[in-house]
Amino acid sequence: MSHLISARRCLRIATAAGILLPSFAAVAQEDHSQWTQPILRVAHEEPAAQVASRIVPASQPPGEPFNLEKQNPGEHPLMPALRVAKSSLATIDQNIRDYTAIMYKQERIDGELMPQEVAYVKVRHQPFSCYLFFLAPSKGRECLYVDAPAPRGTDGDLLARDCGFRRKLGVFELNPEGRLAMKGQKYPITKLGVKALTEELVTVASNDVQYGECEVRHMQTELGPKTGPKRPVTLLEVTHPIKRTNFRFHKARVYIDNELRIPIRYEAYLWPERPGEAPPLEETYTYMNMKVNNGFTDADFSRDNPEYFKD
User: Where are the domains of the chain?
Assistant: First the structure.
């Protein structure tokens, strides 16, 4: 229960400090000279989507940047990045049992770019468990999912309680892939978190290495608010200049935390409709303020936790 109390306190502090307002730049301004592999640019490129977060400084010196220079003769230019993604997935499996974070998410649904969502998230990997408390725009909405039978889990259901006047309707038991749960969402809650994100990166990269027309470059930069501490990250950018059915995106950027050794931000863009236009954002996910290995138990993901779904 103490973990949840900390989450509520985090919400109060965040609100008081004004850090929930989307007024901070996600990434330092791009320094073109830092890219190690200059490639074709997209005219009038759209800047990284803004996020709003206070970042906790690293408790240890930042880790070494990833080695992306080693490319075997004749291999696909994406192979070094694929190896890094697989290494990140192994790091999660071996070293990260659970975590809390502030999640920023924005997705294009049926051609329309939805507003950015911000939520406090608590995740455990075995069994997969997650709790969300939304901070914006639906402040107070809560979701709970545990991939295990009752009483340990939610029996395959997503438990949700809305905010505002709908909150008095109580907790709903929803099919996580059903119409109500998926309204305004691109992926079900079962795909939430940095592990699912990294698994998807491995899947997509494994597909893309089968084809050409792939340009890859990388640089060292920082991720965080315009003012305040930032996380050193390795930024990978993958571009498919020509639209093909083989590819899911025109341009994708992955920000890998140099200390945690895992992706903490992903953004993907579609092909511009006309030459010279900015590539439209398709989706972006960011995990800030990550605290790993908190020692969560079943009580932290129990429907009966007195700190969840409170009136």
Answer: 2-301
What's the confidence (pLDDT) of residue 25? 41
Q: Which residues contact 152 (CB under 8 A, 6 or more apart)?
A: 127, 146, 298
Closest CA to 109 of 20, 36, 184: 184
Amino acid at position 230, single letter: K
In sequence order, what E strands does the chain have?
Answer: 98-109, 112-113, 117-124, 129-136, 142-146, 158-161, 172-174, 215-223, 231-239, 251-257, 263-269, 281-292
Second CATH level (architecture) for the domain 2-301: Clam (2.50)
Tell me the pTM.
0.81
User: What distance in Å separates the CA atoms of residue 213 and residue 240, rounded to the nearest whole number?
Assistant: 6
Element (H, E) at 21: none
Give residue 181's identity as a one-letter amino acid code.
Answer: A
Please tell me the distance from the alpha carbon of residue 117 to that of residue 15, in angstroms, as a whole number: 15
What's the alpha-carbon Rg for the chain, to the nearest Å? 20
- Whether the pLDDT of residue 54 is over 80: the answer is no
Handedness of CA 151, 152, 154, 156 (dihedral sign): negative
